[in-house]
Design goal:
Elements lengths: L14 E7 L11 H15 L4 E5 L12 H17 L6 E4 L3 H10 L3 E4 L9 H8 L3 E4 L17 H18 L7 E4 L8 H9 L1 H5 L6 E2 L5 H7 L8 H13 L4 E4 L2 H15 L3
Parallel strand pairs: 1-2, 1-8, 2-3, 3-4, 4-5, 5-6, 7-8
This protein binds 6-hydroxymethylpterin-diphosphate (HH2).
Length: 277
């Protein structure tokens, strides 16, 4: 069952979401124009291969600190405005847990919300998605990034994530979000061990059976380093592409990746090989 199109994208083939993180360690308040210009340049390059650009101003890595909403807005809004003024029409997703940030990003030209807490962090998030009639990605996570790795215990991770996603779909519908505006994500690496991540990736057909687009964000994550023998995140491209191909074959519809060019190339080969003679 192919999910309904979103943002003008059909899901008859896997779509690539390019990650554009604007999370410098030290960022002067009010935003840094040079940082914004660099991000817009990266967006231009990425837009050639990516179907969606995912822009985030707060790191959600394990142990990461909170960023105040005002600072997050100052990071993402100039970049989104800059992308739109540069005439780049690729759909933009804003990766944030905060409704105020999502709202400012939508006003600046973003098209969808990517919330790693599925609306649990900020009670205004689901009503915002409903009111603005924009798609929202609901990801499974159990705690905030600072403490999530203390929670890597599940009796049955596949069932726990499935139940949680069903609950979050219900909460979104309750808030008035249209069902065909919901994207689901099992939350690879969020409070999960390497074994949990493998189990979730193998179980993707079960999540896809919910009939909504499935997003998978495994790119450069720690389990790829652990299993692939790549301690440094920057060395995990090959393993990330391998996981993206596996996820696509198991029914993922959107692959959130750093390496858009390499992932899009690999997906094209996979599609050509899968064609009947
Ligand atoms: N992973 C990260 C951030 N946002 N969103 C979704 N929907 N799914 C994910 O798996 C996901 C996400 C963390 O990855 P990364 O971009 O490498 O780090 P950062 O926390 O700096 O954004």
């Amino acid at each position: 069952m192919t999910p309904a199109p979103l943002l003008g994208l059909t899901f008859d083939r896997p779509r690539v979401m390019g990650i554009l993180n604007i999370t410098p360690d030290s960022f002067s308040d009010g935003g840094d124009l040079r940082e914004a210009a660099k991000a817009i340049d990266r967006a231009r390059t990425m837009a050639a291969e990516a179907d969606i650009l995912d822009i985030g101003g707060e790191s959600t890595r394990p142990g990461a600190d909170d960023v105040p909403a005002g600072e997050e807005i100052a990071r993402v809004v100039p970049v989104i405005e800059g992308i739109r003024s540069a005439g780049i029409a690729t759909p933009i997703s804003v990766d944030t847990r905060k409704a105020a940030v999502a709202e400012a990003a939508l006003d600046a030209g973003a098209d969808m919300i990517n919330d790693v807490t599925a609306g649990r962090y900020d009670a205004d998030m689901l009503p915002l998605a409903a009111g603005r009639r924009v798609p929202i990605c609901l990801m499974h996570s159990v705690a905030d990034p600072k403490t999530m790795n203390d929670h890597a215990r599940y009796e049955d991770v596949v069932a726990a994530v499935h139940d949680h996603l069903e609950q979050r779909i219900a909460a979104a519908l309750e808030a008035g979000v249209a069902r065909d505006h919901v994207i689901l994500d099992p939350g690879i690496g969020f409070g999960k061990t390497a074994q949990h991540n493998l189990s979730l990736l193998r179980a993707l057909p079960r999540y896809a059976a919910l009939g909504l687009p499935i997003l998978v964000g495994a790119s450069r994550k720690r389990f790829i380093g652990e299993i692939g023998g790549a301690p440094e995140a920057k060395d995990r491209m090959a393993g990330s592409v391998a996981v993206a191909l596996f996820a696509a074959a198991k029914g993922a519809h959107i692959l959130r990746v750093h390496d858009t060019y390499e992932t899009a190339q690999a997906l094209r080969l996979q599609a050509a090989l899968d064609e009947d003679e």
